[in-house]
């Protein structure tokens, strides 16, 4: 017993649909299943000994039988790999859980809803943990079972890493980790991956979700793969996501038409993501200053982008380029206001300049009746 080879995944949410994709939501839903299949293949190809799934495998217990069948079929396809599952808050181990309703493949070890462990004596390893029984698990995680120093001790658990006790999702505190006696804690629940960290003698991480399912889950996604041994842990991130959700701010100052803006965006994406720019989902934020004559049509830009990439939505946050000097020459109340403000900005200290510029912008907006009551 020197080390054990593991793959750590969580929060797949198989069955979830990205409704903003409309007619394509269903095929996108299948892509999460395909990413799960890639995880199974990665485990097989790398001769993983234990596959740890730290909750939210399914988006709910109410997923279709076809999805459950496929997931169980994949589990059965790697009979030599031990799969440990700790149910999460989305697919708790209640009576309607797929793991309760249907026969679970023999190599799958579902953790109970009370403190427990499974012992793999051939691997010199114990996997501790506990499944969610319901959607909520209030209070702080405490563990009543002692570890045995003769084993590599791993914990597979879904929960919220925090210092206070106010979570509805199984608070896991650093004190708990410090006293756990574990060599590695494979966490699930937080969809954003963390680096491998260490508290006391225990290594831990959130592996994050392997496939983003919205613009709050940006960037590269995947799993952790590697070895855990007594007092040590050597895990690497392996990217596996089929598509990435990405948010890009693009400065379009001085550009004159929506067609031109679309070309600039597409070229920017091609350069930044040369291998797979067309495959991703983008939220594009247009920034910069544009002249009064430029008409930006976000529907037109969206339409052009969506024929070049899998999905794009566009938010226009450009600002109107205003010729203050020109306005200051107007013989109107607005002209006099701008002239006075420009003179004050000119003679102000750096910090004051910023405030006066903001006041000038707000004042101009007020002339066109665009200032809301609480705008500052
Ligand atoms: Mn989740």
Describe this structure in words.
By secondary structure, the protein is an alpha/beta fold. The protein starts with a strand and ends in a 9-residue tail after the last helix. The chain has helices spanning 25-45, 65-76, 98-101, 174-178, 258-272, 298-306, 324-328, 333-347, 350-367, and strands spanning 3-9, 50-53, 82-85, 108-110, 116-120, 125-130, 137-140, 152-158, 160-161, 169-172, 184-188, 197-199, 202-206, 222-229, 232-239, 245-251, 281-287, 289-290, 311-316, 319-320. Helix 8 (333-347) packs antiparallel against helix 9 (350-367). The mean pLDDT is 92. It is built from nine helices and 20 strands. The strands form five sheets. The protein has a six-stranded mixed sheet with strand order 4-3-2-1-14-15, with no helix packed on it. Strands 5-6-8-11-13-12 form a six-stranded mixed sheet. The chain folds into three domains: 3-239, Metallo-dependent phosphatases (Purple Acid Phosphatase, chain A, domain 2); 245-320, Translation Initiation Factor IF3 (2-Layer Sandwich), CATH 3.30.110; 324-367, no CATH class. The protein is elongated and about 90 Å long. Helix content is 28%, strand content 26%.
Which terms would index this structure?
28% helix; alpha/beta; binds manganese (II) ion; 3 domains; Translation Initiation Factor IF3; Purple Acid Phosphatase, chain A, domain 2; 376 residues; six-stranded mixed beta sheet
